[in-house]
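At this stage, I put together one protein's amino acid sequence and its backbone structure tokens, which the following lines show:
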Amino acid sequence: MPALLRLRRALALGMMPFCALLAAAGLVRLPAAAVELPAGPQVPKLTHTAPERWLNSPPLTWDELRGKVVLLEFWTFACWNCYRSVAWLHTLEKKFAASDFLLLGVHTPELPQECRLDRLLAKMEEYDITNPVMIDNDYSDWKAMNNRYWPAFYLVDRHGRIRGRYVGETHVGDRNARRIEADIARVLAED
């Protein structure tokens, strides 16, 4: 992606200090410790509280998740980019298993057949998805987060603040994975 486009995207997100914007655009190089993740807005409340809207977990709230670093993933099972990110998500869970880290999925269907619980459960079994997943068939969480992409990942700190937003298919060791993993480690290291 051209440097100017990266800079515009980061500016549009409004979530990076100026030096980090320049680094994100590839215009300057900063040591990893010099790039801070700014505290963004509070994450909106999770929109589904009924037990039948949650898989692999009872309903969760952000208040219950205080103290944990959460990667909130918007996905849908018929999306190839989401499917191809699953292997990386499995390695991510293993990498941070000993820490206060949680991968929280939000399944927001793109196609009508993805609204069917039996199909979602079958795909979760096929993909070996064991992390908590909230079913967002009505797009309420999608809209609350102002999300637009599958897959999309939001890094939420221990205080419920959004610290990063990442989009697109992600593979073990690729640029997006390295960035997200570094950001998770950085937020986990904070008080």
About this structure: Residues 9 and 112 are 31 Å apart (CA to CA). DSSP finds six helices and six strands in the chain.
